[in-house]
Amino acid sequence: QWDRRVAGFLLGEDGPEGAAGDARAEPPWPFERLQAYIAHVKSALQPAQTPASEKVLTRYYQMQRQRDTLNAARTTIRLLESLIRLSQAHARLMFRDKVLLQDAVVAVVLMECTMLSASVLGTTDALHTAFPEDADAFHAALEELVLERLGLGELAGTEEARP
Question: Among its keywords, does the record have ATP-binding (predicted)?
Fold first, then answer.
């Protein structure tokens, strides 16, 4: 049932159901338009890191290094490079020329969802997470949680936090 629901959403057959069971208001972009958008942002933008995004990515990397005290060689510089690329990719998708705090938080969340033993968010099940009714409020709460767990709560609500 879950697979049918997700496949239907991705194919545009139905939307995420809210409390009232309403489907989303707008149809998704046609495949060709989505493909053209991704090609455009991929070639047109080279987002630069902001100080706030650098702090988030660096702190997350440091936490992973500290967590891997038994085998620090497992957490290499490639993790930091991957975080930077993920945050830049999110900034591109959002059509921005700067990597904002939001983009860095998304990179951390993506990394946490793919790790077997997540350290910041705890265990997450990305496959069976319900679609939030208010995506902006959900992301704001998630951002606050990530910043708090990284010890960077002072960055929440700063100028670099929002586009």
Answer: yes
